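INFO batch 0412 | record 1 of 1 | parsing
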Amino acid sequence: QAYEHGTQKGVKLATLCCFDMRKTDEKESCFDHVREIASSKQVVLKRWYIYSSSESYRKAKAG
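INFO prediction complete | emitting tokens
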């Protein structure tokens, strides 16, 4: 979808964004099913992990 939209609009850069709300931070695995095709079409993949609470954020940052 990012590639097709970008092609139709004549953009210089297409990006697929994921606001990751899974219970555990599985890093970039949310893109496993599209990584190869995104690479072949030069679509940039960008992910933001969204913590379920401020407490879980603090725990993650504390290590």
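INFO post-check: The chain has three helices and two strands.
INFO record closed
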